[in-house]
Write a structure and sequence with these properties.
Elements: E1 15-17, H1 19-25, E2 28-33, H2 43-56, E3 61-64, H3 69-81, E4 84-89, H4 95-103, E5 107-110, H5 115-124, E6 130-132, H6 139-145, H7 147-155, E7 161-165, H8 170-181, E8 188-194, H9 199-206, H10 229-237, E9 240-245, H11 247-261, H12 267-277, E10 288-293, H13 301-311
Parallel strand pairs: 2-10, 3-4, 3-6, 4-5, 7-8, 7-10, 8-9
Antiparallel strand pairs: 1-2
This protein binds pyridoxal-5'-phosphate.
Residues 41, 43, 69, 136, 165-172, 221-222, 224, 266, 268-269, 294-296 line the site of pyridoxal-5'-phosphate.
């Protein structure tokens, strides 16, 4: 069977104006709707490209340890490519998440109490025919995520600022790579973390990678305790402003976005939207802003109602 092309692994997403914010702020606020990807987040891009390449190199199985959107993207990519998928998750991963992964055809194993233990087990399952897929730290992922900027270059004029959420920094690396390869190396990037998940901010301040002792943010998808070295390098080689927003601001943004755009996103994505909603100083002087609506599947209408009740 021929290996399907990347075009079936991720899709071109719309770039649409945020009508309310654009009017209120007198600037062009554009939304890159990654929530429409096959696996519900931008991860379909990088994971799709990476899995296609390991399939072409002979892998028959994909192995990962993410119970989040990366795991979902690997499960969807594996099904599309006709490869078996193993996801090892820790005991703390909710049964509903395990069910979602199984529904995509993945084999789910539960190992260890925390992610690092599940990840060690996953790495132990790697063979010549079974390839490990990292959630954020691999050049194929950045190359794939960069396609969202390739599309921006087709869809509209040069933005003054691009807003992205940061967990392990894979999306940041991809967006910076995309800006460079489209001749937009001077376009500023606003890199957003939530309080309690500030592994990039900590690395920038220390001048080297830092492992956070704990993740306390509600935005679990941003909870990489240590970013990729390449993400720290991006902040040195490109105009990147690293900022922090509160959990409450991220949740409020999710609620407003649901009401105004009729689209549900995770708090990890709400963090980027909060920068636009709160007219953050990082946007000062920008006439045209693109917010990467990174998406995420860990959200339901019940979550939106609970967040509405907790943050008004
Ligand atoms: C993975 C993910 C992030 C963080 O991306 P990194 O590449 O780890 O920085 C943010 N939001 C969503 C919805 C994600 O799936």
């Amino acid at each position: 069977m021929p290996i399907p092309s990347t075009s079936s692994l991720y899709r071109v997403t719309p770039l649409i104006p945020h009508p309310v914010l654009s009017r209120a702020q007198g600037r062009d606020v554009q939304l890159k709707m990654e929530t429409l990807q096959p696996a519900g987040s931008f991860k379909s891009r990088g994971v799709g490209v990476h899995c296609q390449r390991v399939a072409a190199a002979g892998a028959r199985r994909l192995v990962t340890s993410s119970g989040g959107n990366a795991g979902m993207a690997v499960a969807v990519a594996g099904r599309t490519l006709g490869l078996a998928v193993t996801v090892v998750v820790p005991e703390s991963t909710a049964p509903a998440v395990r069910d979602k992964l199984r529904a995509e055809g993945a084999e789910v194993h539960v190992h260890g109490r925390v992610w690092i233990e599940a990840d060690a087990d996953a790495r132990g399952r790697v063979t010549a025919a079974a390839a490990y897929v990292h959630p954020f730290d691999h050049p194929d992922l950045w190359d794939g995520h960069a396609t969202l900027v390739d599309e921006l270059a087709q869809q509209g004029p040069r933005p003054d600022r691009v807003v992205v959420s940061v967990g392990g920094g894979g999306l940041l690396c991809g967006v910076v790579e995309g800006l460079r390869r489209n001749g937009w190396g001077d376009v500023g990037v606003v890199a957003v973390e939530t309080e309690g998940a500030t592994s990039l901010k900590a690395a920038v301040e220390a001048g080297q990678l830092v492992t956070l002792p704990a993740i306390t943010s509600v935005a679990k998808t941003l909870g990489a305790s240590r970013v990729a070295q390449a993400a720290l390098d991006c902040t040195r080689d490109h105009p990147v402003e690293v900022i922090t927003v509160s959990d409450a601001a991220a949740l409020r943004a999710c609620v407003r976005f649901a009401d105004e755009l009729r689209t549900l996103v995770e708090p990890s994505c709400g963090a980027s939207l909060a920068v636009a909603y709160d007219d953050h100083p990082a946007l000062a002087g920008a006439a045209r802003v693109v917010v990467v609506v990174c998406g995420g599947v860990a959200v339901s209408t019940a979550d939106i109602e609970a967040w509405r009740a907790s943050v008004g």
